[in-house]
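User: Last request for today: this protein with arginine, please.
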Amino acid sequence: MAKKTKKPWQGRFTKKTHQFVEKFTSSIHIDNRLASYDIWGTEAHVKMLNEVGILTNAELKKILAALKKVEKKIHDGKIKWDDSLEDIHMHIESELISLIGNAAKKVHTGRSRNDQIATDMRLYLRDEIIDIVESIIILQKKIINLAEKYQNSIMPGFTHLQVAQPVTFGFVLMAWFFMLERDKERFTFSFGRVNLCPLGAAALSGSSHKLNRKYVAKFLGFDGVTDNSLDSVSDRDFVIDFISNSSILMSHLSRFAEEIIIWCSTMYNFIELDDEVCTGSSIMPQKKNPDVLELIRGKTGTVYGQLVNILTIVKAQPFAYNRDNQEDKKALFDCGDTILNSLSAMSICIDSIYLNEDITKEAAKKGYSTATDFADYLVNKKVPFRDAHEIVGKAVAFAIKNNLNLDEIPFENLKNFSPVIKKDIFKFLSIKGSVDSKKTLGGTSASEVKKQIAKAKKLINEK
Ligand code: ARG
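Assistant: Here's the final one, the structure of the complex with arginine:
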């Protein structure tokens, strides 16, 4: 135990660290999550040290065997995390030294915890990004399934939360798909910037040893090495990228959640969610609440908060490494966990959606949702659009006064609004006619939604 608490940097100190300072500066209870990456990075480093002649074959063999033992000990939960050893790097080094002594004391040659932690973070983030992209694809597949099921189901489309024009539920779902597609692209793109190896930057200026950085990068599956050592150890923009991309993703999930919550409300009753994904009230026996979706919406705050957190951590740090950066792990882990959980939760909810098609169809008829189609009808009969707008506005006012939908106005009255109005107008005033007519690329007509679904399936299968 006495051996274990020996700090690798203690040489120049004459006093013991204050107990509170030890606790305050320790990150081990958070960064122990990086253990396997730290061990892998160390394996790469010592193999390279052997390559360049700093470690003998015998030393390397000993170190690698000891690393395996430490890994198993951590995996089995047999290591007691100790604040006096600050972080995962010092714990692993101290374990190695207590196992094999002198050879282990050479492990940190040409390496600093500054480039070590930057490497661990990048290794961790690579896996996290891969997991997130996979989770997005799972959600996208569920959305496509639902869109296929409901591609002809008419519902109102809204602007300002007022009924605007009829659309299909399949069309709405495909909007969600393409939003997620861009999220996926953002994460995939950021991967390239993460996948560069900082190890060898050492404390800030590189090393006087003849380290082979490219060897290490290759061993760890990086695309290459970072270009400048000062930058390598000091910036955390790859974490900012990740949390920023996560924030945009969360804004999307939050909006999907909000839509479903509104549509589930008694007043709308567009959607029913399975009992499995809802919760009840401790006092009101009738309640069935969409808490899972509310939590996704709520957790958006957690992720946005971490974006402000990481931006503030890096702001105004003098070059190069400062201990402020230790706080990046909380932000990164919290964000990654929240994103992965929210994606899984949303996937489960999407699977449990049932659309009350009769209700959404009736709702689409309300609010004079085909008024634009009426105007377009007049335009096709050579009425300038601005005049057509005015004419239909008057017809809407008539309908409101007489408590009718547009297609319920008797033809005798309707034809008075313009001489070009003929009986075929009623085809254009129906909600199905309206949806079918939206054949522009990306529109809500069945043929266009089919194309969107086909493209989406292609995009998913390409990945
Ligand atoms: N635990 C530290 C971190 O997470 C590791 C780097 C410490 N470096 C140092 N020079 N104090 O950032």
